């Protein structure tokens, strides 16, 4: 084998081993992780105080607080808030300023920057056990909060 052929064979072997090594990297190692969000759950009032009489006062006393812990504003348009039974509220064009919170009430009302309403006629959250899940507009899970009360 000539020196030139030996060099070409060595180069081919190195190139093939590099491709094999790249193929051996698991997809999860090359996948882009979901960026950490400054949006978190705050307090949750899953059991409306008093008698559950389905009045707007009672329905709106059941709420979830969502807080932006970051400095910049986050647009929650297309984000969803879901319970364990897959009942879903979808945010419209709500821009949550840095270091601010919004309460998501179960009943009906007029949306503001501090309070939004699911416009439901029934309670959203189970008083004994449930899970609130917040997803961004790409359907990535941003936050979950569960409770079990006996």
Give the low-confidence spans: 9-16, 19-25
Give the strand order of the largest sheet, numbering strands 1, 2, ... along the chain: 1-2-7-8
- Alpha-beta content class: alpha+beta
The overall average pLDDT, rounded, is 85
Proportion of beta-strand residues: 25-35%
Question: Tally the helices: what do you get?
Answer: 3
Gyration radius, to the nearest Å? Answer: 25 Å
**Biggest sheet architecture:** 4 strands, mixed
Number of strands: 10
Distance between the termini: 81 Å
Helix content class: 10-25%
Order of helices and strands: HHEHEEEEEEEEE
3D shape: globular
Helix-strand layout with pairing:
Blueprint: H1 3-24, H2 27-30, E1 39-45, H3 56-60, E2 63-68, E3 74-75, E4 80-82, E5 88-90, E6 95-96, E7 101-105, E8 115-117, E9 129-135, E10 141-148
Parallel strand pairs: 7-8
Antiparallel strand pairs: 1-2, 2-7, 3-6, 4-5, 4-9, 9-10
3D architecture notes:
The protein is globular. It has 150 residues and is an alpha+beta fold. Strand 9 and strand 10 (141-148) form a beta hairpin. Helices cover 21% and strands 31% of the residues. It has three helices and ten strands. It has helices at 3-24, 27-30, 56-60, and strands at residues 39-45, 63-68, 74-75, 80-82, 88-90, 95-96, 101-105, 115-117, 129-135, 141-148.
């Amino acid at each position: 084998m000539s020196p030139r052929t030996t060099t070409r064979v060595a180069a081919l072997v190195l190139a093939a081993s590099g491709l094999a090594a790249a193929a051996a990297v698991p997809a999860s190692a090359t996948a882009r992780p979901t960026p950490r969000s400054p949006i978190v759950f705050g307090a949750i009032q899953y059991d409306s105080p008093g008698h559950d009489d389905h009045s707007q006062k009672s329905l709106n006393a059941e709420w979830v607080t969502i807080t932006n812990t970051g400095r910049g504003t986050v647009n929650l348009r297309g984000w969803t808030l879901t319970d364990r039974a897959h009942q879903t509220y979808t945010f419209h064009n709500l821009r949550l300023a840095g270091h601010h919170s919004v309460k998501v009430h179960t009943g009906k009302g007029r949306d503001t920057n501090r309070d939004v309403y699911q416009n439901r006629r029934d309670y959203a959250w189970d008083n004994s056990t449930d899970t609130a899940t917040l997803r961004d507009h790409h359907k990535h899970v941003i936050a979950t909060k569960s409770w079990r009360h006996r």
